What does this fold into?
Amino acid sequence: MSYFKSTFIPTLLSPLKKGHERSNRAKENIVLAIFIKGLSIAISLVLVPLTLHYVNPTEYGIWLTLSSIIGWFSFFDIGFGSGLRNKFAEATAKGEYDLARTYVSTTYAILAIIIAIILVIFFSINPFLNWSRILNTPASMARELSLLAMLVFVFFCIQFVLQLLNTIVTANQEPAKASIFNLLASVVSLAVIFILTKTTEGNLIYLGAALSFAPVLVLGVSSIWFYNKKYKIYAPSFKFVNFSYARDLMTLGIKFFVLQIAALIIYQTSNIIIAQLFGPAQVTPFNIAYKYFSIITMGFGIIMLPFWSAFTEAWYKKDIEWIKNVMKNLIIVWTLTSIAALIMLVFSNFIYRLWVGKEIVVPLSISIVMASYVILNSWCVIFSNFLNGVGKIKLQIYFGTLGALINVPLSIFLGKHIGIAGVILSTCLLAVMSAIWSPIQYWKLINSRAKGIWNK
It folds into this structure.
């Protein structure tokens, strides 16, 4: 291991040590993240058929839908996580490390309070929720689903606070390290599910516990390690909690919160709509296509990982030429990934049969719309990362809110008339709007021509 860290990695990264220091950091993180995320993607692809071997497609669809619903609560950080990311990057760029630690400690305290309130509310109302109706399942599953929801939600709440470590490491322009957490969680999940397939019959409770506990375990151990090592100067501490700084975090954070809610409605409601319109079993082929084409999303996301905080630093230091050069290169990368998505579309049916067998059929229409979605989404991500990094997000809020209002009724309408592909098509149509206005705002900002709403 010492050889790997002291010799192999430096040798691997040595060709990247040319150019701007900020670019070098980004390139190093991209190379490491490609390796780490590549392993994560491979594990996630193996996990799908393994899970389908453990539970049937309907139960798997139930799990996917339930986890999507509970995942909605991640947005109840009210944008503090995103606010911390920008404020932390600004503070460290100025060398104000005590201020960075204050932001970290205060955010941990605020999220702990928020999650405690949410937990109390959930435990109060969960006995009255009819999960079988919510998930469109037989009434006989109501008690099992209620217990599953409670179990998964508790683990989710713990993860809700612990995952701030991801934000801090990423804000410090070391996103590759943050990727390791997801990789380790995937490894733990895979190991536990494999053991379950050998020792138990298919059980949703066991499945939910395994997949929910893994990230909590990894983030808990990682937090102890990092905050006692390199990140000790940023470690959360009661004496650094200062709620007067909550306003700094909230001013920007509340804007991100609105964006997160809009994104939730636009991008995370598909499972629910499909389950209600076509039954939970049909969530499975949709997610098979989603996971397949998300290779493009994750791959492009790996490349984009370092740039949000890097844009923050560059904008603060008025390094406009660096931003322009990076954006040109990212557009070239987007072109190549779009070609890759089209190639994946051509071979999609063959890959599906090889991957999950002939029992689950994914219609070509779903694959076509999903490929279109990942191409559009990747284009939008280039500009949203820049706009998020420099804090110019008011237009995103307006268009995101409009999209959130339109998406659900449009998805239902298109779903009824076109089928499952129509649900995804709705998201694609809304992405087209962002694909048009966001590069315009970037151009105005980078050329100092942004006025009014374009500069907010």
Notes: The mean pLDDT is 82. The chain has one domain: 19-455. The chain is about 80% helix and 0% strand. The CA atoms of residues 125 and 279 lie 25 Å apart.
